[in-house]
Amino acid sequence: MSRTSNPIVSFGIRRRITLTMVVAGVLVLGWISLTRLPLEFLPVFSSSSISVSVSYPSSSPEEISRLVVQPLEDSLGTISGIETLSSSADASSGDLRLSFVDGTDMDLAAVEVRDRIDRVRHLLPGDVDRISIRRFQSSDIPVISARLGSNWPRERLFDFAENTIQRRLERLEGVAQVSLRGVQTPKVQIDLDPDRLQAYGVSVRDLVARIRSENRDLTAGDVFESGKKLLVRTVGEFRSLDELRRLPLDDAGLRLADVAEVSYSFPRQEDFNFLNGEESVTVRINKSSTSNVLDVVDRVNAEMAEVLALPEAAGLTWQAHHDASIEVRQGLAQLRDAGLFGGGLAILAVFVFLRRVRTTLLIALAIPISVVGTFAAMYLMRQAELTDITLNVVSLAGLMLALGMLVDNSIVVIESIFRHRNELGEESRGAALKGASEVALPIVASTATTLCVFLPIIFMGGGGFMQTYMKNIATTICIVMLASLLVALTVVPMAAVLLLERQEARPPGLISRWRDRYAAVLAFTIRHRLSFLVSIVLMLWGAVALFKTIGQTFSTGGEERQVVISVDTPRQYSFDETRELYEELYRIFDSRRPELDIADIAYGFDRGTGRARGGWGGRRRFELFLVDESEAKLTTEQVRDRVRELLPVRAGVSLRLAESRHRSGSGGIEIELSGDSLAVLERLSSRLSSQLAALPMLKDVDTSLESGDEEIHVLVQDDRIARAGLSSSAVAAIVASSLSSRSVSRFQSGDREVDVIVQYREDERESLDQLEQVPILQAGVALPLAAVAGFERVAGPQRVERENHRSKVRVTANAEASATFMAMRTVGELMATFPLPPGYEWSFGRWNRYQQQDQAMSWFAIAFALVLVYMLMAALFESFAQPFTIMFSVPFALLGVAVVMKAFDQQLDSMANLGLIILLGVVVNNAIVLIDHINRLRKEGLSRDAAILQGGKDRLRPILITAVTTLVGLLPLVAPLILPSLFGAAEGRAGSWAPIGLVIMGGLTTSTFLTLIIIPTIYSLIDDLTQFTRRVARVV
Questions:
Q1: What is the CATH number of the domain that holds 200?
Q2: Confidence class of residue 836 from pLDDT cuts 50, 70 and 90?
Q3: Does pLDDT of 721 surpass 80?
Q4: CA gap 822, 994 in Å, rounded
Q5: Where residue 51 sits, what CATH number does that domain have?
Q6: pLDDT band at 28 (very low <50, low <70, confident <90, very high)
Q7: Is residue 339 part of a domain?
Q8: Would you list the DSSP string of 674-699?
Q9: Distances from the Cα of 160 to the Cα of 150, 281, 308, 638, 751, angstroms
Q10: Where in the sequence is the domain holding 114, given as residue range(s)?
Q11: Taking a C-beta distance cutoff of 8 angstroms, is the pair 543, 898 a contact?
């Protein structure tokens, strides 16, 4: 073997059978790994935040904030690693969100949160019994969200959903949780008769205490009998409603049934849930973390088919409005078709240039071996816990992006082998060894540059969803590019020896005829270097100037096909009026389904448990789910504009377009005002809303200060209760016991545990007059509540929000998704001059901050990637100067990026920035191959100019072929942007990937052709400068 041979190339040629077995083993392992890798829709994602939710019905937002939220804030706020602590309280619950800094051990944080809650549990109201702690993960996203509809009575629908459907689905393999929304559970309702209570001298407070103390099973210890240990339990829980009715209230034989009516029933309807005009129950199904999404959905659909076939299910409908399996299959099919189409185009391009079937097939080997080998590597890395990557639309998109580049290394290797075989006359074995060894260093260098640009992404901080997206794509591309490098250095040389043994001389092709013309142009530019330098500077200036004109946006182009209408009704709206409003909206949009591309219409309302009967105010959502982008006539933004025009006008009702639940393409802007006084924040938010509404780029300006229910404040008079021998807390407890819908105990009904509610009869709590007459018993004497308290009507807030222990108000607005960046900059300038009192602050909302962080991280990754590329090339070429020559490929790539982005009216978003990062690693590859070959020719004795001309001629073909294969491989990605009328609008997942492909195609096109002319010229100029510097250094 030649002493200049590469050991890896030499191994492949010498040990052909061994290498063949290794490749076969990789293919087998890859196929097995493909069947065992988890199949998901989106990457595995874990949030660096923890949510705490406390249920406390029949309260006001301010009461929950004071009694529940603030004690928890004081305890949780000192946990190490918390970045922000935000909270909100409405009329039935309090919620806290703890966001931690990057790098925090979230498992330990969750344990600390639970411990802190236990420490202050005694400070919370005694009837708080449900505190949930959860951390959002990708497995929390349901694989199916469906609506059960029927014309049955509500009670029958709820019972069937809970006792039949939920139980059968939870038994299925791979199903982790089945949750029902819109279902009302029955309760034990104890309706008190105030006249009887007063007649018998029974205090509501004492009655509730009696129920709680009697309805209890207790462990009493143990006894020994005949050497056996027996556990002793006192059984006191009520076993039936009759037993509860017979509960004694005094020694005279007074029973609960004497003063109250006890029933087991559904509570009064206070909500509704509709899909496509039918009342429904929402069923959300989550899979386990290790199960396959397609298998789980198939099992669920099969089970539901059996359920719907039951005689007792006649009239029941099941309609899935979110089915992850459909999205997975569509996403995978799109990526598969794009991959096959792109790969086929790349192979066709190779054949057009080479015009040899066997050579084309040899190069094509790189694609299946590299891709299947990638699956094996992904599975092994998962088993070694080096990564949690799965098969999902994001990781497979990385494979598709790399598809056109997989054959690049093989093309360079086979071209070098041909040169040694056909032009230098070497035998096939020697040509394969020398040809592949000759280009081993440059293809390793070019692959290394492609890989190193992803290091900032793989190791970047932050656990945001966009970082997870980028890491999945980066990891996949790195694995598959390493696989293609190994194939090019081993399989291709080995196959070349076997397949090209009798290879005839290459017929002159199109590129062969271009070589001499290219050499003539190159010679001209070298002779007129200084004049050409001026044009280079002008092109650089034009490239940078044009690139700066590209707009920026936080949208990823992948907006969900959904339009959400926020409904804000005044507090005096009754339940029937609210329902009528929603039905009017349904009629408007149901009649325009084809016109607006509407697939499904969903709406629901839940005013909250235990609120005053007259107060039905509240903001709820009306949702329009649009048809898939492949079937759509309108873009989502066009639908939003038309919907906005169709919204009816009603006095006191606010109908606005809101952000969808999936924010990737949202143009929503949120400003948070924080300070100590909610009244001051209300004035500030009102003034800010007026100023934002005056900005033409903003629409749907609103604040989080929603109109809440009207509250009646009971003002206990200290002097009066003192004379009556009462305390204010005792009066409050009596009133709450009489009116509150909070559970006072639990009742076992079969295998279901339900709440026990004690209240006055509904007809006894309908007016303020009745409230004033609530009896307050003291020493057997009944006093009306009005005797010890006054009453005041107050308009309370619907929600109280806080952040970092301070009150907070949000002001929201919508902008065009493509104009979010400019809108945020304009709003930032406005806020810089917006007067705020001392101690009050503003900031963008959480989602906007995430967007800014993603954008900043992308630009950091681009800058870091440039530095890494330079450092790597300096190490490979052992030169500080030559990497500068190669780096000139980058600004010329920006020229192409700017041109295509302008041509297709695109803006720089997170996905386009990812395309820029990939482009940085790709555009320098051609220059690396060219400069390395020129250096080799100079070492062999050619003069610099002769080496430049010969090197350009030798590398013209592989450079053009690799560029074209990469470009055509990306064509399916950008097809929706180039020909939307044929391939559909670039929305949804297609809209996410198209900017990546467009950036790479535009940058690679201009960089390739300008590299062939400009890089050799710059090389000669820098070489002269280097020689001059050395001469000066020697003189000095």
A1: 3.30.2090.10
A2: very high
A3: no
A4: 22
A5: 3.30.70.1430
A6: very high
A7: no
A8: EES-HHHHHHHHHHHHHHHHTSTT-E
A9: 11, 10, 11, 41, 15
A10: 47-136
A11: yes
